[in-house]
Batch of 2 targets.
Target 1
Amino acid sequence: MSWDNLVDTLLNVMVFVFIGVLIWLYLKEVPDSAGSDRERKKEQG
Amino acid sequence: MFKNARLLIALALTGFVAVWGIVDTPGLAAFATSLVKVLFRSRGWFIMLSVSVLLIVSIWLVFSPYGRLKLGQDDDEPEFSTISWLTMLFAAGMGVGLLYNGGAEPITHFLLARQYGGEREAAASARFITNFHWGLHAWAIYGTTGLVIAYFGFRQGCATLISAPIQRVFGMTTWTGVVGWLSDLMAIVAIAIGVGGSVAMGVFQVQGGIESLFDLQNTGLPLALGIFVVLVVAYIFPLMVDLSKGMALLSNTAMTIAGLLMVFVLLAGPTAYLMGGIVEAIGEYAAGVLPHGFKTYTFFDQRVTDWFGSWTLTYMVWWLAWAPFVGVFIARISKGRTIREFLVGVMLVPTVFSVFWFGIFGGMGFFMAGRSGDAILKIVETNMSATTFFLLDALPFSFLTTAAVVVAAFLFVVTSVVSAAFVLGMFSTGGDLNPSVQVKLIWGVILGALGLVMILSNSIDAVKAIIAVSAMPFVFIVLLLVVCLLKSLKMEAR
């Protein structure tokens, strides 16, 4: 494997990992802080 | 000020690039060029996929029920009338790049494309590619960044920072703290170097205009540096006093000059020929824009892949470099608009304007190439910044129109630097909406130094490479911001 190929593979593996993390973050359940903040503001308003 | 780690590190990073460039300009240019080559070769597909995803998400948001949500509280009304809002969007999109590339870019693509087919097909694909570079994909990058900033700023009450949506959606944890901090830093570096590139481009454009006005030849670095000094003096003063209304006036003046120039060339030039070309361009663009966003020229030869890197990919990362800066601007003027209104306005109106702009200036270039031989092709190959002036020379009142381009280019650069220094000051001080004069001045100096580096490189390709290196990380951040937006919209709908 040439040096160029190795760099190419590494750079692309980083991208694949990033895409995986993005999908995971999108599907991951998180506390509904944004929504609850808005509700709180509405109640105060 | 000196206790702010983010500001200090951002200044150190951008200052380092500036000093390196001034001390060893060819070294920096060579480093950036070789790094960009590696990055584009390995990640070209990812850049194209990302910008296409941004466009598809934007179109989906327009038609989805989320399109009805307001960028602000539900009872907020738009601050500006629709007409002045659309005019201001023009102002954000109308940069010195349009003046620089108006006539030259379609012909540059034509010079390559005609080696692979007939001249008529080459002219049509050159026109299409130019519209692709300046059209919906570019504005989807700006639009999604601006939408995230506006949604989280006006609807969720977050600070105007790139990190704010990440920390709002995923909570304040170690990873969101680190990623958020890095995102703000990368946005600052991308803006600083991107605007530095525009300073250089503006100086080259003004230089080309002065050479054309006074019939000078090969003025080289001395004239470029002279223009640069005048430019720095012109933008330092507005940084020291609050001239927000004055700057809006200057920006509108530059835009009006550009708009009048466009109308003048359309009317004084071969009107029917230009309109015919524009109508064809609209059809070609509408039919091919989405599939072309996925085109990576994988099966073409080295010459085409090099061209793809130095034009299409460079443009896409250039828009990414400007995205936080333009995003903040278009977000600030869009409070009270719905997501649908925002995206339609931001993506469609400037795209239509660009199709007309390149249809008129590029069409004029093709018209001259067809009638007066290879003179214009040679100008594009040897001195791109002189192309617009060469075109104007063929029409009446060329002294006036050339002077108008020089004035507009100068004003565009001054207003860009002043606005960029403000946004950089805001980002680097944790979202302070009124950054101190001291901070703005420091950013003004850094932007000037970065502009100087790119002028010293005396090569628009080196300028593009330096910008591409600084903007590449931002492609990751924009995608993360879009995930934050989609998650937040989903949570709000629950």
Target 2
Amino acid sequence: MQTVFIYDGSFEGLLTAIFEVYELKSDTVHIVTNAHYTASFFEEKHEVATNTQKAKRLWKGILKNAKPTDANLIYRCFLSELPDMEQSILKYVQLIFLHKQSVAKDFGEAYVFRLAEINKKIGREKHRMEAFVRFRKTKDGIYFSSIAPDFNVLPLIESHFKKRYADQIWCIYDISRNYGLYYDLKKVEMVHLELPPSILSSSTSIFEEEELNYQKLWKNYFESTNITARANQKLHEQHVPRRYWKYLSEKNLLEW
Amino acid sequence: MNFDRIKEKLNILADAAKYDVSCSSSGSKRTNKNKGLGDSSGMGICHSYTPDGRCVSLLKILLTNHCIYDCAYCVTRKSNDIKRAAFKVQEVVDLTINFYRRNYIEGLFLSSGIFKSPDHTMERLIQVAKKLRLEENFNGYIHLKSIPGASDELMYEAGLYADRLSINIEIPTKEGLKLLAPDKNRKDFLQPMKKVRNEIDKYKSEKKLIKSTPIYAPAGQSTQMIVGATQETDAEVMYTATYLYKKYNMKRVYYSGYIPISYDSRLPAIGTEVPMIRENRLYQTDWLLRFYGFSIEELLNKEFPNLDSDIDPKLSWALRNLHLFPLDINKADKDMLARVPGLGMKSVYKILHGRKYRKLGWEHLQKMGVALNRAKYFITCDSRYFETKDYTPLQIKQRILSEGSSKYQKTLSSQLNLFS
């Protein structure tokens, strides 16, 4: 009978779950978050209590047997939140402990390939967010941006923005996961905010008066720099998929 | 800031700058200093893409579109009846900073029409860059245009503030230049290029001895050629490019399909289609030369002065050299793998790593993302099934073309070629 390991959705929780798979010597297992769990008659249920000690031991074990690239790969894939993510990571960890070496480049192995594939998606989304974040300056001088990435990439883009905008206060808020990064000129912190719905439109009650002017200038520039003789809508939408348009002032500024 | 006036200027001067294709923002090593603004040490970022599918990475504008020259291929030529405008230095600085702070751009690409004299123009461009670096502590990317005929002293100064310098030779052949831009001299283009190359070399050797040597144009220099404005062959374009890569250590040579903008009888008429496939094939050739170990003589020579438009240059080369194939994917060395049609460098690396663990078969190659529709005629792998028939080059070409559908299908219409 298959055993379902239910964890709380945190990275530590997942590591604990994998640790317990070994601890309980379970063969056919299935790991899900409690949010995704639906009870079934034909499965044995095992609830995982997140345990820092166990998580750390597994993490150390991974680093000892494989390389930092493997550990990094596992963490990045965790951020994808994809439905087969837990299973692929479990198989990957099992491969590491079986071969006692890094397996990151064994592309002929199906699960390694799957993780590499997910990692590619994550990398693409991370890069997109570094490109598509649009700051709007609020009345109290904060450069604010709201985004809703496909994957949970905020932890991965933090250092990029911290390095780049070292001299301005900024906040990047993930609306779909309801948390954000806030930089106060010294350090970056994780924040939870109650945002008014008007945050998406650049209303002057929240944002500086000049803000809209800059958005207009930017949109204006965007239109002037286009060459109509080379129009290629398909390529355009391939690079900037429609689901991101609502966050881009050059595509979305209506009152123009 | 008078937004309406700025808007009007931005319209005119962005529109005039858009024919410069370079928009890269990578390759610099400038890091954020003293908690200032910006960092250009990472990879380049395209912040948006225009409806023509081109990347928007830099604020690409002219300082002015007033120009004393009358080059036939250029929109800002003296004799063209268009609106003229000019930015003040401070206006460009403010725009750049405010766009950058909102994460719209990676930096500034500043070019200009030539007003009064080349030196006078170059000096203004440098003023903008200097102000951004010294007064605003701006560490974003700055791409400055080298103005043809600018003095060596100014070219030296430009490199102290800019990440990249570029000068467009525009017309690939001497004869073409004489025809379309009679007041310009090839030497005026090459002199600033030479100065920049020498300074970069000097910087590199001095840096080894003295750590505090001020950085000079860390992202190197680039240039651009217009294709399709004169009657040049692909070989002429690519031999010129190879010369520029070798002689002047170019980071990039860009190829820009000529967009008809003039009724001048020396040029293709307005409404002529932009040669986009040709442009694409030239870029593919450029990549083969820089990353795949090909030499220019293998791809273009007296017998093959032009690239095939219906198949890519690597496939075209492979069909002329069938005696080198098939290759065993599990044994062939890196250089030869890179020459297999359908294998990109990423696939090559995946194969090199993957085959250390096990022998690779078709299913592995497919998963790795190899374009098997092309590759299968040129390789063998760990499988009993492979192409056993001896096809002629023409047969292979037709089989590949009939299986795939090129994104250029509409313009290609290979049907006609069957009878030629």
